[in-house]
Amino acid sequence: MPLSLNATLDIPARALQLRSQRAEVLAANMANADTPHYKAMDFDFSAMLQDAESSGASLNTTNPSHIKSIASDPSKVELMYRLPYQSSMDGNTVETEVEQAQFAENAVQYQAAFTLLNGRIKSLLTAIRGD
Amino acid sequence: MPLFSIFDVSGSGMNAQSIRLNTTASNLANAENISSNPDEAYRARQPVFTTVMDNLTNNVAGVRVTKIVESNVPPRKEYAPSNPLADEQGYVYMPNVNSIEEMANMISASRSYQNNVEIMNTAKQMLLTTLRLGQ
Fold first, then answer.
1. Cross-chain residue pair B115–A20, CB shorter than 8 Å
2. What is the pLDDT of residue A73?
């Protein structure tokens, strides 16, 4: 059975990276919870991960002015503004409860992605050692 | 690694909130400072928060206090002819500090500070977990 290292490790690794990027975006929202006119941001995790999975078919660019598909640059994520449940007087759309919940969920998902990646590394090591 | 920049982001948030707490403390400490003319009266100060963008990645990089503004509400005028600081008409001028507003501000600032600390702690936990990868 052919074993592809990339296929085994790539997706969990990308998930881990996306989770940490999302943690940063949510931390920025929390830091700006009292900044007037700040708009809370987030990104669609599963869409970004699917982009990474299908990145084999990404567009090639031959000129720097060509528009790259997002998938071809793994460090970029497509940030979107969050729709607030309640509007505030100062134009800020950060709702600390929402952000806290999302951040906690993201931290747990990070742990999950980590466990998956760690498990795969361990099973690879077992296969290499053969004991 | 984005997890490391959380320390900067949340750190900037904590810094901004502590400046806000500081101005609140200054406002409350000076709430009873009497003066003999309206121009000399202490005025409530409030920090102005601005989002900082990271020019390289165009991501939000945190928050910063860009300026501290003084409230333009006229100082409270009180009739107290026996006060040695009273002017010719017998009036003294009290700072335009609203203690209730300041207390609410203080609680909001300390809660936001705590939130940032929590985020930083969680990010630290996540980083420490990552260090154990493959062990």
1. no
2. 58
- Partner-chain residue, chosen from A28, A34, A75, that has the shortest CB–CB distance to B62: A28
* Residue pointed to by tokens 């009290």: B94
Other beta carbons within 10 angstroms of residue B101's beta carbon come to 14
**Confidence at residue A101, expressed as pLDDT on a 0 to 100 scale:** 94
Joined tokens for residue B72: 């333009």
Amino acid at A125: L
Candidates B5, B115, B126; nearest CB to A107: B126
CB within 8 Å of B20: residues ≥ 6 apart? A34, B47, B49, B65, B105, B109
DSSP label of A44: -
Mean pLDDT for all residues in chain A: 83
Q: Is the predicted pLDDT of residue A70 greater than 60, yes or no?
A: no
Test B13 with A31 for CB contact under 8 angstroms.
yes
Q: Check B2 against A21: CB less than 8 A apart.
A: yes
Q: Which residues, listed in sequence order, are joined to residue B64 by a DSSP beta bridge? A: B50
To the nearest whole number, what is the mean pLDDT of chain B?
90
- Chain B residues closer than 8 Å to A21 by CB: 2
Q: How far is CA A13 from CA A74, A118, B130, in A?
A: 12, 10, 11
C-alpha A51/C-alpha A53 separation (Å) is: 5
- Report pLDDT for A67: 65
Model confidence over B37-87: pLDDT tens digits?
Answer: 888 899 999 999 999 887 766 677 889 999 999 999 999 888 988 989 888
Strands (E) in A66-129, as ranges, are: 80-81
